[in-house]
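Subject: Predicted fold for Phytocyanin domain-containing protein, 218 residues

User T.R. writes:
Posting the sequence so we have a shared reference for the thread.
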Amino acid sequence: MDPKYTQALVLVLFASILGVSNSYLNKDWQYSDWGSKRGSHRPGYTATPNKFIVGGSANWTFGFNYSVWAFKSGPFYVNDTLVFKYDPPSEKNIHPHSVYLLPDMWSFINCNLTRGVKIANETQGAVFKYDRPSDKNMHPHNVYLLPDISSFINYNLTKGVKIANETQGAGEGFELVLKKWKPYYFACNASDGCHCKVGQMKFFVLPYFVVDIIDIGN
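User M.O. replies:
I've generated the structure tokens; pasting them so everyone works from the same file.
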């Protein structure tokens, strides 16, 4: 892995954190013309948490760039819900997906799921959404949560935790609520990590932590 690439990803992460701090100081910032002129994709925080289908209409599938999706769909906030949808295992889906939550950026970058937590198995694509294994889905997906940035950058899923198996992406999909203000690194470990390394089935989000600012002047 090119050190410059790794440094760039780390800088993006810290820039996101700084953006959170900036939002505390001016809650109206995201509603101003400043954000729209710079291509912001989503309005500011609302009292009601939002629900996102991971990948949109593409769902949780091989070959889709989820890092780009996460960038375009953000910002995310604490208590927002991610929905993973994917097909369960079947005769046509012999490489079903799952969902792992990785512990840090290194696990995420390297697709290292060894310390990740499996939060949705191959049958839970009900709401990371992906198809169950079947005759037509011979490579079903799953979802891993990776422990750190190293695992993410290097596609190292050995430390990841499988949070959704190959059948949990069906129906309404596998749902995960972003309960804490921390980076969440996701990946699919189907076909021994090929879906993560080659199929671009990985992304991370850093939800905003919302606080009420007291106006001392009033």
